[in-house]
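Bumping with the actual sequence this time:
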Amino acid sequence: MALLVAAAAPAAAQAPPGGPPAVGVIKVTKHPVTETNRFIGRIQATARVDIVARVTAYLDSYVFKEGDEVKKGQLLYKLEQPPFQAAVEADQGAVAQFQAQLANANVTLQRANTLINTPAGLQSNVDSAKATQGNVQGQLLTAQAQLKTAQINLGYTTITSPIDGKIGQTNVTAGNVVSPSSGTLTTVIGQDPMYIVFPVSVRSLLELRDRYVPLGGFDAIRLRIVLPDGRTYGQTGALNFVNNTVATNTDTVTLRGTIANPALPQKGVDTVVRELYDGEFVTVLLEGAQPVDLLAIPQAAVLTDQGGSYVYVVGDDKVVSRQNVQLGQTEPPQVAVVSGLKEGQTIVVDGLQRVRVGQPVNPGPPPPSATEAAQKAAQ
């Protein structure tokens, strides 16, 4: 019974019959508020690589498990190698042949230079030997280049992952001929970190610029995301990019940040599981890194009609007036006031139904909440 009485009893003294109505009032003060803007965005991989064949050959096998995470340099596909190995060996033979011919041309030129100062020596022999040497040198360089190309093509018969990431399904199975024109064999997606990409209207972007640039720009902002199931993701992201053009069809500018996507704890499971997926829709919360002091009032004090949002202000003469307000961010049970009120003004928060504009009231402290009343009754 004491609890019920405590919860129901108003803190403001009851006005005598016929006197001004009793109302609960508070002084408007500043409170630390974390400014937040909401946008709809997508998760995007920071790295995405389409794996394609660099040479034409039969596909011997693929040596990965579809959907697994792979490491940079890990073997993915094996192509038929014997034709490419044979090409390498043929070019090695050509190189050896021209190396031998060059050695002989060098000896011939040396002999011709030695004999030029003797009666048996002729300048024409020297010139001919130089030409032969130059020709063989050119043929050797060509053969060496062909050998290098053959070795590169042989290396292309083993296809490895160029990045760490999660691999998709294979689009080609063993026994098929693949080539550079065959298209994507599979795709590897980088997993950690991930991008958060979201469009912002030009008007909102200008407001964000004016708010955060004086506070440090990107350093004054942090990103949080709400997942499709309504959970707030545990990691905090950082904004790092604002596009340099406006999308003319939507009048928006694309913003991008990065956020960690660590592996989730797993017991007895080899597969790595992460929270974020490439292409996933999320709600983006763009927050100030540090709270700012703003005028804030209880939501219960705000009324709305066709003229907009307003509150009842009690003057020094205890007479009530209506004050239109522009509201900002809501953090229940408080709401920020952008304009319309000044710090120190007195507003009505309880007994609003008894208030009439232009009439006096009997102001007092507002009644405690049911929780506060229960705590007091228990003491």
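The tokens above came from a reply further down the thread. Helices lie at 2-8, 82-115, 123-155, 202-212, 370-378.
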